[in-house]
Design goal:
This protein has 311 residues and is of the alpha/beta class. It has helices spanning 2-13, 37-46, 97-100, 113-117, 132-141, 166-179, 193-202, 236-239, 242-248, 263-271, 284-293, 303-309; strands spanning 21-25, 50-57, 63-65, 148-153, 186-190, 208-212, 253-256, 275-276, 297-300. The protein has a single domain, classed as TIM Barrel. Keywords: Hydrolase.
Length: 311
């Protein structure tokens, strides 16, 4: 009980801080290959408060750190040294850990839109997808005792066949956290609120962050339709605002696309005692504006730039 109270108090207490919490998105994707030990090392060098990362589960049950449900051809080369072809490579859930380690994720494919977005990312050939245990050990080895992890479950309720069953997926993550005694240093986040419901049932003391997006290309709220597969039965039509949906779901942390925010929405969220952690903020001027509105932190590909701008 004491642990639960401490965690919730620590999370909610962010709302009263005058500093901005900086979370390194996929480590520091703007500087090093995403979701790799090199990227997490860069983020630690930049002085992040939290490492933000994504996890999947392999065919043989390893929790690995990767954003995509299937290998991304824009950043993945096979054993032959060639970039994967097509829109997607093999699914993570269909590969054993040993098979997954045959792929190199250390260099962006030249000429891709990804390469244009991250011109400063330093290639590191021979880089492999790490396990979650590798990342936890990195944090421990570097004596960053105050650094926490914000771990995203990459389940798509509109395409559930791409990942293991929700309970298997979430259960593997929580088992790994407990096995390596890291459960008190994490937040679990997801766009899929069903996954967060399962996390709440399995480990109620671990804080949960409710990711949302309301963009033309990706809308997890679907306010005009009244409901969404992403929000575990919590319907916009019933609550009239996203912060109220998050609160009704039992959430204490709301993580929206920063483009979906305005000062009024931040104010509403704060009145509901929500921590507000927008993504993905790479422009220091935008970060300053969001801070002035009252957000508690930002998730960023360039923690170095955001940290420097806050000095």
């Amino acid at each position: 009980m004491k642990t639960t109270v401490w965690l919730v108090a620590a999370t909610v207490g962010l709302a009263g801080c005058t500093t901005l919490e900086i979370q390194g998105h996929r480590g520091a994707r703007g500087l090093a290959p995403e979701n790799t030990l090199a990227a997490f090392g860069k983020a630690l060098d930049a002085g992040v408060d939290t490492l933000e990362l994504d996890v999947g589960v392999t065919k043989d049950g390893w929790v690995v750190v990767t954003h995509d449900q299937a290998l991304n051809p824009d950043i993945t080369r096979g054993p032959d040294g060639k970039y994967l072809e097509g829109k997607a490579g093999p699914a993570i859930k269909d590969l054993t850990f040993v098979e997954l380690q045959q792929y190199d994720v250390g260099r962006i494919k030249p000429g891709t839109e990804y390469a244009k977005r991250y011109p400063d990312q330093q290639a590191i050939d021979g880089t492999r997808i790490p396990t979650l245990v590798d990342v936890m050990q990195l944090v421990r080895d570097r004596a960053h005792r105050g650094v926490t992890l914000n771990i995203e479950i990459k389940r798509d309720p509109t395409k559930p066949e791409l990942t293991p069953p929700a309970r298997t997926y979430v259960g593997a993550l929580i088992t790994t956290l407990y096995t390596y005694s890291f459960q008190q240093r994490v937040t679990i986040q997801s766009f899929d609120w069903e996954a967060l419901e399962i996390a709440k049932a399995l480990a109620p003391h671990i804080p949960r962050s409710y990711l949302t997006a309301q963009r033309k290309t990706f809308d997890t709220i679907e306010a005009e339709k009244g409901g969404s597969k992403w929000t575990a039965g919590y319907r916009y039509a019933d609550y009239g605002s996203v912060p109220k949906m998050v609160r009704a779901a039992g959430g204490l942390i709301w993580s929206p696309n920063y483009n979906d925010l305005d000062e009024a929405k931040v104010k509403e969220a704060k009145e509901l005692h929500l921590v507000v952690m927008p993504w993905t903020v790479n422009d220091p001027e935008v970060a300053k504006k969001l801070k002035a509105w009252g957000v508690d932190g930002v998730i960023t590909d360039r923690p170095d730039l955001i940290r420097a701008s806050m000095k």
